[in-house]
Amino acid sequence: MTAPSDAATVVGTYARRAQFARAETTAVTRPRLLPKLLRTGPRVAEIPCGAGHFLTEYARTCVAVTLVDACPHMLAAAVEHAVLAGIPVDRTVPTVTYLQELEFLAEVDVVVAPNAALNQLARQASLTVMLTALRRVLRPGAEVLAQVACTYPGGGVDSATFYDAARQHGVWFPDRWLDPAHTGGAVLRCRRQHRDDDRLRIDFAYLDATGHTLHATTVELTLFSARRLRDAFTAAGFVRVRFLPGLDGLSEVLAVTGPGAES
């Protein structure tokens, strides 16, 4: 399947952001369901990995790691991050590709989709189509854990390191202090957030010590409901779909590939 042109455009914007991504991943909340999965599955894939989100956890449990991202710059940052986290090179498999173009991951026991990555991907392609593509490259019985941003009856919405519904929308505010040694000189990330029903647009600006903007970018996401997630995973061929609501953070979905996964 050829990657859609809008997805290629989005991937292109991540090339410059890669230098800031490693510092950003340090603040991402670790999934509550991840530790148990890593004890039972010795081979894990992070898709899309960005600069690598949970590499320290992978290193501690001695799993083999496949890192998948469509942006070569992000993948290079992830590989470097993996080495620093203590994952041996012979246990790291970097793969540059779009999710829809993945080849068979026969050796993978657990797939982790971190930090609302599915919400971002859903702005370029159908959630069910993406999950079907993922299911087809996994062996039956493989588990998929996704951190997702969700809405709830009554208007509630998950919070994350990139979005807080309680903060004012449409205005810039200081978001996170950064270590300039790992961010090309940036010391501050500023954020401006917008929400239109189930759509989020988050603007980021990375500033140096003088307040000069080194880089600016925008991330767009689609918010999910628990029902939409369950329906999409089920339609894509997953079974035993479990939804864990966010607790002052992102929600989690855990699902198992059903019979009929194809190479």
Automatic annotation (TrEMBL):
CDD domains: AdoMet_MTases. Residues 44-141 form the Methyltransferase domain. It comes from Amycolatopsis minnesotensis. SUPFAM superfamilies: S-adenosyl-L-methionine-dependent methyltransferases. InterPro entries: Methyltransf_25, SAM-dependent_MTases_sf. This is Methyltransferase domain-containing protein.
